Amino acid sequence: MNKPHITPFRVYYEDTDAGGVVYHTNYLKFAERARTEWLRSRGFEQGLLLKNEDSGFAVTRLECDFKAPGRLDDVITVETRLQEASKVRMRLQQIIKRGATPLVYLDVTVAWVKKGKPARLPEMLQTC
């Protein structure tokens, strides 16, 4: 498969519950930011796509498999890898890790939306 894009993060107090463990929904935020950085690394600025073309991605499917907890002050990484792309959507695999330890596996499908409606992915995005 293709080489993953790696985005590092540090876990801050605001990311955790009262026990210092990453609150489950915050993994989705880390994954979203990593997908943005993955696109940016390929020359696509989501802000410009939204501004210039009134277009962007919408998550249509998300599956999470939680394996281990992240904790306050951990340095974690999110590996983002394109699994498949069609004319209207992309499926990505994301793995959130602390060192070599997987914390969460995510399988994410995003669809292209233009002016609030499903649309064909621009050709340049189909080859990401």
Can you give a write-up of this model?
This protein is of the alpha+beta class. It has a single domain, classed as Thiol Ester Dehydrase, Chain A, CATH 3.10.129. 23% of the residues lie in helices and 43% in strands. The chain contains three helices and six strands. The protein has helices spanning 24-41, 46-53, 123-126, and strands at residues 5-10, 55-66, 75-85, 89-98, 101-114, 117-118. Strands 1, 2, 3, 4, 5 and 6 form a six-stranded antiparallel sheet that branches. β5 (101-114) and β6 (117-118) form a beta hairpin. The protein is elongated, with a radius of gyration of 15 Å. The model has no long low-confidence stretch (mean pLDDT 92).
Topology, pairings included?
Blueprint: E1 5-10, H1 24-41, H2 46-53, E2 55-66, E3 75-85, E4 89-98, E5 101-114, E6 117-118, H3 123-126
Antiparallel strand pairs: 1-3, 2-5, 3-4, 4-5, 5-6
By helix and strand content, what is the structural category?
alpha+beta
Mean pLDDT: 92
- As a percent range, the share of helical residues equals 10-25%
Alpha carbon gyration radius: 15 Å
Number of β-strand runs? 6
Q: What do we call the CATH homologous superfamily?
A: Hotdog Thioesterase
* Major pleated sheet: 6 strands, antiparallel
Q: What pattern of helices and strands is seen along the backbone?
A: EHHEEEEEH
What's the N-to-C terminus distance? 13 Å
**SS field, number of helical segments:** 3
Shape: elongated
Unreliable sequence segments: none
Strand content: 35-45%
CATH architecture: Roll
Domains, number: 1
